[in-house]
Amino acid sequence: MTELWFYLMVALLPVAAFSGYRFGRRAKHKHETATQGGLSKRYFVGLNFLLNEQPDKAIDTFVKMLEVDSETVETHLALGNLFRKRGEVDRAIRLHQNLIARPSLAPESRKMALLELGLDYMAAGLFDRAESLFKELILEPRHKATSLHQLMLIYQQTKDWQKAVSVAEQLQSVDHKDHAAEIANFYCELADQQISQHQIKSAYQSLKRALQIDNTCVRANISRGELALSQGQPKQALKYYKELAKQNPEFISEVLPSIQQCFIQLRDQKGYRQFLSSSMQQGGSTSTVLAYADLLRSEKSDREAADFIAQQLQEKPSLKGLLKLIELHIEHAQSSAKPSLQILYRIISRSFESKPVYRCSHCGFGSKTLFWQCPGCKHWGSVKPILGLEGE
């Protein structure tokens, strides 16, 4: 007996028992002897389907036994929820539509059925239908927070970031939770759309608004730096990257090539060296150390660069740094030692390449790509570079 079958049986036995009880009770008032036997037969047929591991037929039987009234609405809703969780969204939709169509259904029961139907439409990917239902339900205090949350999910799926911002701001005032990270990232997504449409001024405004909402939003400063650099404004780009360094030095590794490009365009190698030195003093990443080593290599020698990396590895061991050190030694190694160093390099390189570079601080999802929204738990701004031996 599978796990799914067990849960179905647990869920449906109370439904069967309640259905038998309700119809047996009603039958007593109508025609006690004649009707009760018929209802009992259907009830036991449903139980027989359950016992013979035929849950679909059992569900159909029990649904036919239910009459929609104030005492069975919750049972219908529970069945619809069960259908949806099993992936039978069409059946859930039909059941909830049938409930809503009943003229005798109490107003509050109708609202519950509308909410469940909206969730059915979400599961089916019918976002336009779900949107209209949740818009109706946000007028109801009891269902406002849930409806706003679902609308926020819809606008994320449809990439309507302006509406996502509006709904998220409403939700924050209703559920009294902190949605700053989400709203800031919605503004960043909106800025990306505006950049693609060459609306540069509007994009800057959206990114500025993101930082007003969440002053820890590193994405906004990364985007501002990229935008300024693409517009031929390296000095302005550096300003944004320096703000990023103050926000979170862990993300400097993401923009180091762009920072180097800024200093190259400004013809300020001394400034670049000072920037790297300052970043390392603030607890910079391995990428910062390696960038500084490349400067030493170009200005002085490979030996200076190798000695610097070795010194840094003693304080902050990392596979990334070790690989660079071995690479430098391979170039100057004697012919007898070179094959061994090359083998060591390949082994460590394969080990390093198999490891994730980023990790979600909320669910632990690891990846080689920086996602602003975690693919695992869907949290915004929770994916960060991994630090330590196997990371930065």
From TrEMBL:
The entry's keywords: Cell inner membrane, Cell membrane, Iron, Membrane, Metal-binding, Repeat, TPR repeat, Transmembrane, Transmembrane helix
Domain LapB rubredoxin metal binding: 358-385
Regions crossing the membrane: 6-24
Alphabetized InterPro entries for the sequence: CellSynth/LPSAsmb/PSIAsmb, LapB, Rubredoxin_2, TPR-like_helical_dom_sf, TPR_rpt
Chain coiled-coil ranges: none
One GO-annotated biological process of the protein: lipopolysaccharide metabolic process
Binding locations of Fe cation: 360, 363, 374, 377
Cytoplasmic side: 25-392
Pfam families on file: TPR_19 (PF14559), TPR_7 (PF13176), Zn_ribbon_LapB (PF18073)
Single annotated GO MF: iron ion binding
Compartments in which it is found: Cell inner membrane
Recorded topology in the membrane: Single-pass membrane protein
Gene Ontology CC: one annotated term: cytoplasmic side of plasma membrane
Swiss-Prot/TrEMBL TPR repeat ranges: 218-251
Matches recorded under NCBIfam families: PRK11788.1-5
Similarity comment: Belongs to the LapB family.
Name of the protein described by the UniProt record: Lipopolysaccharide assembly protein B
